[in-house]
Amino acid sequence: MANQVVQCPSCDAKNRVPTSAPGSPRCAKCHKDLPWLVEAGDSDFEQAASTKRLVLVDLWAPWCGPCVMVAPILEKLSQEFSGSLKVVKVNVDESPRIAQKYNARSIPMLLFMRDGELVDTVIGAQPEHVLRSQIEAQLA
Questions:
Q1: pTM to 2 decimals?
Q2: Catalytic residue among 8, 27, 30, 64
Q3: Number of domains into which the chain is organized
Q4: Is 30 noted as a catalytic residue in this protein?
Q5: pLDDT tens digits, one per residue of 3-54
């Protein structure tokens, strides 16, 4: 499982963030919560989705225009909800077992998970305010 580099929104320090870990990633410099946006695939998805945080799984593909439109929204929301949301991006072309497990027939497909269990599904590109409201509802 590879670490991914995330820039701290508070102090701009670059930090390595693991795909899975107990607890929450924090900035090594200022100790604030970091956005937790990682990529996972068939081999490490279960570990990536298994956390106490709310997990938003983005089933996407690089050739999918709506998927590309949703990506910066998810990045922004991962920063806005640092400390309470983890975004896991899964490329369905490279991870057919995950796509099949969740019956991904249309993408983007967003899965809300808690403790590794599916709690809600959103199909299709949604505007930022809709996704924010759904995240807030799941966190409430």
A1: 0.89
A2: 64
A3: 1
A4: no
A5: 678 888 889 888 888 887 777 788 889 998 888 888 999 998 998 888 888 9
